[in-house]
Amino acid sequence: MKIVLLGPPGAGKGTQAKDLSKRLALSHISTGDILREEVKNNTALGREAKAYMDKGELVPDKLVISMLQSRLTSKSANNGFILDGFPRNLPQAKALDEMLKAAGIDIDNVFYLEASEPVIVQRLSGRRVCTKCGAIFHVQNMPPKTENICDKCGAKLYQRSDDHEETIKNRLHVYLKETAALIDYYKKQDKLHYVDADREADFVIKDILKIAKGS
Ligand SMILES: [Zn+2]
Asked: Which has the least CB within 10 A, 3, 131, 147, 179?
């Protein structure tokens, strides 16, 4: 089964992708993770990507597609994959389709995790990260035992600068604008399923599994 997960920041894509990959025995392919790995392993593609990142530029789609190609067609993805974090716009979706088509692979389902602005703001603005070990807490959903102190290592917690309310709203609007044409594209292919992601993760995954197994 080949799945693409879409959804704005705070909709729970990463959590769902991890859980789904376990339950359906699919390879979880996150473009963010792949980029970091290729750079860390100092591969030819990684070095090329790093040159852009060091200049503060976006890594070109072509390069990301090349990295994806080896993962999507590798043995570990034999049973299928969940693509998380890519595509983010129409040109990327078309480039992805072209590459998959050449490899004889077809995407089965695209899930759009739909979350409302107040829920996204609540989830992301409440997030606190440990300055030392990177553990993540949430002021309401997963509070530390002592306010602003990490349960695991005792260091102070902080709020990431892009988790401030105005920045979150801005990230959300950028995402919605970028993905509008992408969503139409998958709708026309009859692959798009909206899932209400304002709810807790357990409810969201049940919906996804029902649709995935029915197709
Ligand atoms: Zn810590």
From this structure: 147
